[in-house]
Amino acid sequence: MVRVCGLQEVWDDGERNLVGWLADELGYHWAFAPSPAPETWQRRNGEWGTAFGNAVLSRWPISEQAVTDLSGDDGRTLLFARIDSPGGRLPFFTTHLTSTVGGSPARCAQVRQVCEVIAVNSPAGGYPAVLTGDLNAEPDSDELRLLGGHKTAPPVPGLVLIDAWRYADAGDPGFPWQRRNPYVAATLEPDARVDYVHVGLPAGGGVGHVESVRLVGDEPVDDVWASDHSAVLVELADRRD
């Protein structure tokens, strides 16, 4: 099984990188893309001089990686990592779109950039592209419709990225941002689905088909919540003809 995590708001204080520390503990591989404009996160946490960004944590080697700066002035990026798994190479992407209230036009522009990068780095055959991230938008938003490519014209012709939560129990809203988490309750914001795993269309033999999806990290451990966001866990098929 290919085990890969896409992470956002990962910090690096110059002495220790959070994803690097996790990789050392697990014996995994990692990649990190610091924001070119980390001031928002530094101001929020009072951690001046600390880098914040997106990261990939992988059980299997990362043979290629690249960072794309997204449009806007708040330092958002897209991190690409090609994972060399035993079942083949997996094009894996993670991002964190702008959180500006009323910022749908800005996120739409960022999604168009994301799709262009995915198209260039996702050859036909083998594993389809996987996009993970905190997209700061609800499922029926314009930016999410662009990713799906079936409710509006996709930014790149032929590129369709399926929201993996569509394979979940229809009665489960899948809120990774939920008020029963005290970190969320303190914001006075409503429950929301803003964290996603999107997967390209399956390859031959069903490779990359979504077999299961669920939330994890959505309960405290010893009364401690790991994050204000729960994680979306997706299992993809690796069978071939």
Automatic annotation (TrEMBL):
A GO term, aspect molecular function: endonuclease activity
Domain (Endonuclease/exonuclease/phosphatase): residue spans on this chain: 4-229
The protein's name in its UniProt record: Endonuclease/exonuclease/phosphatase family protein
Organism: Kribbella deserti
Keywords for the protein's UniProt record, in alphabetical order: Endonuclease, Hydrolase, Nuclease
PANTHER family according to UniProt: CALCOFLUOR WHITE HYPERSENSITIVE PROTEIN PRECURSOR, ENDONUCLEASE_EXONUCLEASE_PHOSPHATASE DOMAIN-CONTAINING PROTEIN
InterPro entries on file: Endo/exonu/phosph_ase_sf (IPR036691), Endo/exonuclease/phosphatase (IPR005135), GPI-anchor_lipid_remodeler (IPR051916)
Pfam families the UniProt entry points to: Exo_endo_phos
Top-level taxon of the source organism: Bacteria
